[in-house]
Amino acid sequence: MEDTATKLPVTALIVGMGGQGVVLAGDTLAEAAMLSGLNVKKSEIHGLSRRFGSVSCQVRFGEELYSPLRGHGAVNVLLAMEGYEGIKHLPFLHSDGIALFNRLWSKPGALTPAEVTAPAAVRDQRIGWTEGTVLTHQAECPRSLNFFMLGVLSTRLTIDAGAWHEALENILSAASREVNTEMFAAGRRSAMPIHVRTPAGPFSTRAPNRASHIRFRLEESTSESAPITNEV
Amino acid sequence: MKSRSRLLLSGNQAVARGAMESGVSIATSYPGTPCTEILESLSTYGTVQAMWSTNEKVAYEVALGAAFAGARSLVAMKHVGLNVAADPLFSSVYTGINGGLVVVVGDDPSAHSSQNEQDSRHYARAAKLPMLEPSDSQEAKDFVAHAFDLSEQFDTPVLLRLTTRLCHSKTVVEIGSPPAEKPKATGFVPDFDKFVLLPRQAILRHTVIENRLEAMAEYGDRSPLNRIELRDRELGIITSGVPYCYAREAFPDASVLKLAQTFPLPVELIREFASKVKRILVIEELDPFLEEQIRALGIEVDGKNWLPRVGELTPERILHSVQKKAPQPQEKGDMAIAGRVPRICAGCQYLGVYTAIARLGVRVAGDIGCYTLGALEPWNAIDSVVCMGASISTALGMEKALGEEAHGKILAIIGDGTLLHSGIAPLIDLVHNGGRCTVLIMDNSTTAMTGLQGHAGNGKTAQGETGRGINIEKLLEAIGLTWVKVANPYDLEATEALLREALAYPGPSVVISRAPCLFLKPKKLVQQAHLKTEACTSWGECFKDGCVAMERQDLGEGKIGPKINLDLCVGCTLCVQTCPEDALAPQAVTPELLEIREWKIPQPNSPLRL
Fold first, then answer.
1. What is the separation of C-alpha B430 from the centre of its chain, rounded to a whole number of angstroms?
2. Among all residues of chain B, which has the CA nearest to that of A140?
3. Closest CA of chain B from A111, distance in Å
4. What is the CATH number of domain A10-130+147-173?
5. Using CB atoms, which residue from B170, B331, B552 is nearest to A72?
6. For residues B482 and B580, what is the distance between their CA atoms, to the nearest angstrom?
7. ipTM exceeds 0.90
8. Touching check for A63 and chain B: CB below 8 Å?
9. Where are the domains positioned within chain A?
10. Single pTM value for the model
């Protein structure tokens, strides 16, 4: 896919639950693709999904593209913030596509006692699992899961780091920029096949505010984090 | 933000941008998915007076009045809103305009956030006004400018028809410049035969409309917005709007007639296209609106014999339907996985109110808003939902039909925003016609479902300024309702008792459940629910408040117990009040927890300013 990203359009589908920041992650991806000089179309469904409903958005980018939306079997990359939502959207994934799932299972319809069992699709070899929930909790910023996962996704796309950086600058509000940029970087590092060295702690040069604290914790935790696995 | 000429804009933002660049001075709307963000974006421009109106009919009339006065004006609403505004829509086509008037309507194929899936293109034909349909954000912006020119050239309102997919998709837009100076109205010029629709004038104006439509169809033949793209001539596709994008993906080699002006149809252009291709497929969402008109010209086409009438299209759905020569059902996710039902927020007043209502054993006529979620598990507390404002009037109808035995058994539920939108007239009817049912007004002081827009009740304007809000109690008093009491929804027992008292009252009665939406006025977190696990043995029996902060946990040996998600619990204590076993208690939060919570409270996104 990386070879053809600028020729044939890439279709990414980002899914999750209301409140997980699916739409904002999609906005950032779309912005980064646009800043790379590509044509972009992004479409989202949220409407009634406020508060714990399903949320999904598609981002398509490439040189020539028309539709903001593709159907079953046409998605190249599926990014899921939650397991059930990811599995539910597998029919949209192309047979050669890749899926990046955050390891979190939040049962739909938790109110009713009916169990929802994960079907056999969970062992689909196209799925790579990542520990976004654990790592963002360790870093004390679970709300930045979307940017962590976007960082993971960024390693599978041919959008360069400069465009990602500028997109984060443009999309994020001043209040949340630092923490989300950090988590994006953490996701990127965690999905890279090489370990990142832990640099000297930032405490010597920076005031010990919350953001620097997070950075320190992250570098500790991601240096030993497991890369994406196919293990369920 | 840096000033840039290429931006990723949603269809809604692009419409707003186009209107601003075209020198619109008055814009009105009523919030509704998919086009709420049009007015929200317009309200950020200094050159535009943007207003949230009381309902779509009012919004339409305000915009029309501005157009009479010689200002360019725009009114935006969702598809069902156009039903509310249909009265002025039809007659404004008769009066015509002075300054340009663009009417934006957002349809919702697949009914993602709506009570029906109507195809509003029929309004253009029924009301006899021209209609434009853009395919992406760039066209949305450009077509607004075009619609204003068309409106002024042909002296008619122009319908700009969008769909959810266009409104909520972001595509790259080359933006233009704002008007050099703040646009001004040219002034009202009296014209009795045009603006005063008495029967004689109406008949004269009808002739004007029919002539205008003929001229507009001819204009469409030459309009650069309608275009023929000749490729392979075996298959020709006639399409418009977002389906154009789907068609190009599904049949990249086919010839295409892309229609921007879909009413009145450019007849000669269609004939020309038909003469150049071997067979024609009409690709459109919902009804066969183009197909039937094209077939009426005597042109053979395929369309809804293969393509679905229900739900949104995608390129894959079109291909599948055409290959199988049968409509493909909607593309859903893996159905082995249960759907995720939208939930009422933790700590919302509705949790308490619906818990109380579920205990009453009454028939409940519901309405449109966040509180419609009370129709779902675990309360199943609403028996009917039809349209904005229908709760009170349908309750009255049920009561009248059922007679004496229905007294005390019928409850109408309506929010403060919906009450002001279209609930006042039904309330007047209730009093005037001797109704005796109970109305529960859920007052959260905002339009919560669509994103906290201001309304006349809280007095907040589109620019966020606070004016004088309406006093609902005084309004009810003026209508003639004498039994009106206010409930505290966080006191479950008292709310239930008050509702029982209201239902037993021999005349019409109103209970106002009043607490501001938690997003409007976040409460300071002082306590959270605390679980005494050892005491709980009956998970589910008590659990009728359906709170999202209450999760299930496996206690081993096949037992299930509750677990409180402290990230979500806001300490409303409604769960404590519903527990039959005294297994829950409020607990004061520690300063450390408070600090983390404050860190986690999401920052509202600042509206996009360009």
1. 27
2. B596
3. 7
4. 3.40.920.10
5. B331
6. 36
7. no
8. no
9. 10-130+147-173
10. 0.90
